[in-house]
From TrEMBL:
Entry protein name: Amidase domain-containing protein
GO terms, molecular function: hydrolase activity, acting on carbon-nitrogen (but not peptide) bonds, in linear amides
Domain Amidase, first and last residues per copy: 26-179
Family to which this protein belongs: Belongs to the amidase family.
Superkingdom of origin organism: Eukaryota
Amino acid sequence: METSSDYGAYVDKFLLSPPTSSPHAALPLNSLTFAVKDIFDIEGYVAGFGNPDWARTHPVATSTAPTVLALLRAGATCVGKTVMDEMAYSINGENIHYGTPRNPCAADRVPGGSSSGSAVAVGALLVDFSIGTDTGGSVRVPASYCGIFGFRPSHGIISTSGVIPMAQSFDTVGWFARDPTILSRVGRVLLRMPELVPVKPSSIIIAEDCFQLSSIPYDLVNRVVIKAVEKLYGGNVLKHEILGEYVKANVPSLNHFLTQENTDQLYNIPSLAALSSAMRLLQRFEFKNNHAEWVSEVKPDLGPGISERVADALKTTGEGIDICHSIKGELRDALTALLGDLGVLVIPTVPGPPPKLQTNASELEIFRARAFSLLSIVGVSGFCQVNIPLKMYNNLPLSISLVAGHGADGFLLQLVESLSGKIKEEEITQSKA
């Protein structure tokens, strides 16, 4: 239940202090507090996976997930576990069992999921940072909706041991912070990179067609972000790309998913819609392999939207799964060729501001379809992505994302630190103009 002070972010509050053996002042996360999504094992607690039936039918964890241990050993203090969408199967952030955490930027809007409580805890100033997981968008979306930084690392680079799997081809451990310095400090611990050396990007590529999927005026983002890049790195690093065309030309296996439905929708990029279809199919298939037995046996009480998605997943066959894996390889190669070692892609994180609470299902589905077209770029390639909050627009949070190649996580963190400061300066200049 929400208390007036915690925004409904927590499912359980407790205190886990850093081990006493280390001199705390020397530790990289000394004196910082954090919260953990209810999908991670913490010794002595049940990882509840957003659903009371799951919590009831699973044992107390006998060890703590390595990611959580690493943060504690680095000097941070854990203050509790956060609410999440059931079985991590939503990007909305609404939970009928534990309540929907309240979006600190816009109380009448969804907070985004599935790492809803983790994002809200950071956005509402309850903790310095938090951790979540991102399979289809579960860190990037709530970060955008709650107006904070959210980092999804390269797939496979941070251990998911002690984390309930959703779909292993996409599962990552990500984190949230309000400022880029703390985002970077946490990243250095989780990525085991004590030092990040500033490096100039070779290219910053604006995916122009992707911004047409967004309801936020492109020139608004354009003015601030492009000016910040020009001032920091010079105009010659800026490039423009029609990403949908590039993906279509370089990912031949996508033809299998280029259906009439994907090409007919209004405000749609057919190749990215096809990418999203492939991602969602493989996600359903892996979810079924992980959880079908439990769902069939327990028949859990699942909320609207979740129950339908779980039912669809349970019907999935192995048809087309090999093609999904081919697409993953082809997309990674294609985007690696586009970005090189030090290139960055600029895209909208989501198609617009957070939807209103209890938005009707059909309206939400259009938004979700566009969102997954954007989210699947990194989901399928396994690249790293960071959500950067911009100033509020019409009293709603506005953000962009930067995407870098697989394994370029340290470079991306360093870039965010440099660029977000300059973006803030531009926003102040714009608002005075």
